[in-house]
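Review box. Two proteins, two foldings.
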Amino acid sequence: MSVPTSPEGTTAAPPSSVPRRVAVVTGGSRGIGRRAVGRLAADGYAVVVGYAGSQDKAEEAVKEAVAAGGQAVAVRADIADEHAVATLFDTAEEHFGGVDVVVHAAGRMDLAPIAELDLTVLDELHRTNIRGTFVVAQQAARRIRAGGAIITFSTSVVALSFPGYGAYAASKGAVEAMTLILARELRGRDVTVNAVAPGPTATDLFLDGKDEQAIAHLASQPPLERLGTPTDIAEVVAFLASPAGHWINGQVIRANGGII
């Protein structure tokens, strides 16, 4: 499949020289993923911005990446669809010459007590968070170049065990297991595989459905006494993606301000 254009995606024409490193970022149109796109672009990356819904937001992410000094192309993709995910990687190879970094920031969060959660919602959550991570990891393992980095996303709730997060935390526990296993399966490839597990972070996904009292309570939990920001997490991503972070491998980084 060729590189999509509207309504499937949008591209920014690359300059004549190809950057040294190329990143694929899923969930790149919003929240942590979008901030990671901008941060990597500022480091000179060419970025394939994967998104599921809003073309307008994806186009904004592309413009921000280009303004930051990088190159970018946006591609609509259902991360649980292996053909759509293959197109993300095809785009990276066709436009920019390969893939060096994969940041899998796309995900879904549904909250309810275990006794009350609709099983249809559970199935949809697992399709996105478990199957989607597996599909992206599979393509990454097949295509990433030596010296590269694969970064998945878990959550600190896996260890914190907040009530209401049972299904979500279970799906992210699966992400952590896949991540640590993949790091070992890629022995000899010179590729790192790590998971970032944010604590409460001020994204639309996190804030949705929470009242001010609940948000204030969560913000008070870390010793730093605030919510994390997408920028906080994007800095962790940029470090893991960089040569400076290449000795970190097969780890879950709980980026949560010290919450325990």
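Next protein.
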Amino acid sequence: MMATIKDIAQMSGVSTATVSRIINQKGGASEKTIKKVNAVISRLGYEPDFVAKTLSQKASDLIALLVPNLTNPFFAELVSSIEKAADAHGYRVYLCNSEDDRDKVEYYLKFMCNIRVRGAIINSLYVDEDDLEVLSSRGIVPLTIDRACFSHPYAAMAVNNVSGSYQATKYLIQEGHSSRLVFISGPQGEKSSEDRYEGYLKAINKCSATHVAKLYSDFSVSEGYRTASDLFKVRRDIDGIVCSDDAIALGVLRAVADAGLRVPEDIRVIGYDNIEMSRYSVPRLSTVNQLPENIGDLVLDMFEKSVEAGNKPQKNVIEPHLVIRDTSQTRSA
């Protein structure tokens, strides 16, 4: 049976109010009493009821962070950056891994409301404006990143994915001399992938290259490999592949090698995200850097500005840039 404040008070010979003040570091007790109560707390292994404590406070120091998955290195790196910044700003992070499942999203949204988190940083296709309105009505400050709709009346940070993919595709055509290209997208309906496809088509049309196919994949190395392997069974006349993220692109590199082709001599490949792994692939992956290194600080700064502004919408559009490495270079002479 778990120890309670009442148990601690009885064993310490003080009131429950005194124990509560000592636990919450509110003062009002002598050093001798504080040491005695803390000794009892340690002996009983008492842990404060976090939910009860949060509900009793007007403002929590907890921020919920909702992401679609942690298997994709991009989201793992994003979580790490935000957690580090949150700690520096005096917040703790409650991590919600939704796996792009609406039922899980609904569970986490309800839990956020029940424990009254201070804010919710959301990167999900399955959170809509009605969900954000519910959070806001409960005093929770929402901030969406990238994948969520940008047009809602709440704080939002978005990446100009059209521009990023346009730059990548244009580079493959003009500098890599690719003329027959394939676009490997994320799942159908995924907004960032659709924006990247739009930028890809814009560059294809601008540079008068040939669009061979649009293929769908999950954001994973294994699915990138499978998608490209299936492609090479029926088409080998392509010389450029634009990928919707780096995980897909890493799978494509393996599929190219298994098909007996070479990167970049036969096919140029470019990814999107600039995850850490892209620097160490063989050959090293060219990609689009969509988030600055200090993204965690940018997110927390925007969150705090939204809090100070009474949840008035803060909007920020990030302009991505190319990172050119080995996989998009021109053919050897």
